[in-house]
């Protein structure tokens, strides 16, 4: 995936976690090009939007994202090939909130159906990474 050809980043976050988390660390990681955003070119400014999955089982992702992709194309001629979805680390990895999303495969299925490029992870917390490596967090 050539990230220099992308213009719009959609950060998909866990609806349950977002009841407590403002998502600042995800935003900071994009701004600083760290964690899951490290491969993004620093010289480029990306539009970005955070959405949640809408709650288990994540089915609302389909409606929200389909609506967004339609609006982007209709209003700004930003086609879906210029969009990338970044799955937040609270969905993809075991962290202090919980193990990874139990519906991750289903979410990936939805995203595949929308024919939009997807990448894993946003912020990579150092302590959580140590706990994953040492087996304290075992769920991915
Ligand atoms: S990855 Fe972290 S900062 Fe981002 S939404 Fe999940 S818990 Fe919040
Ligand atoms: S489907 Fe996954 S990401 Fe969405 S609320 Fe449930 S656990 Fe969180």
Describe this entry's structure for a reader.
- It is a single chain.
- With 140 residues, the chain is α/β, with parallel strands linked by helices.
- It has one domain (3-134): Rossmann fold.
- Helix content is 35%, strand content 15%.
- It contains five helices and four strands; from the N terminus they run βαβαβααβα.
- The chain has helices at residues 24-32, 60-76, 89-92, 104-113, 126-134, and strands at residues 8-13, 47-52, 83-87, 117-120.
- It has a four-stranded parallel β-sheet with strand order 2-1-3-4.
- Strand 1 (8-13), helix 1 and strand 2 (47-52) form a beta-alpha-beta unit.
- The longest helix has 17 residues, at 60-76.
- It is globular.
- The protein starts with 7 loop residues before the first strand and ends in a 6-residue tail after the last helix.
- The model has no long low-confidence stretch (mean pLDDT 94).
- The chain binds iron/sulfur cluster (2 copies).
- Residues 14-16, 53, 55-58, 91, 101, 103 line the site of one iron/sulfur cluster.
- Strand fraction band? 15-25%
* Count of folded domains: 1
CATH fold annotation: Rossmann fold
Q: How does the major sheet shape up?
A: 4 strands, parallel
Radius of gyration: 15 Å
How many angstroms does the end-to-end distance come to? 24 Å
Across the major sheet, the strand order is 2-1-3-4
Helix content bin: 25-40%
């Amino acid at each position: 995936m050539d990230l220099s050809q992308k213009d719009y980043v959609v950060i998909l976050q866990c609806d349950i976690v977002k009841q407590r988390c403002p998502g600042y660390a995800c935003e900071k990681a994009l701004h600083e090009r760290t964690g899951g955003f490290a491969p993004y070119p620093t010289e480029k400014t990306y539009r970005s939007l955070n959405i949640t999955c809408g709650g288990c089982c994540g089915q609302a992702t389909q409606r929200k994202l389909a609506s967004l992709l339609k609006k982007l194309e209709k209003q700004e001629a930003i086609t879906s090939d210029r969009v990338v979805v970044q799955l937040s680390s609270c969905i993809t990895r075991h962290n202090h909130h919980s193990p990874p999303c139990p519906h991750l495969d289903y979410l990936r299925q939805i995203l595949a159906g929308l024919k939009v490029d997807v990448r894993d992870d946003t912020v990579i917390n150092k302590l959580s990474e140590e706990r994953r490596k040492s087996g304290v967090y075992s769920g991915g």
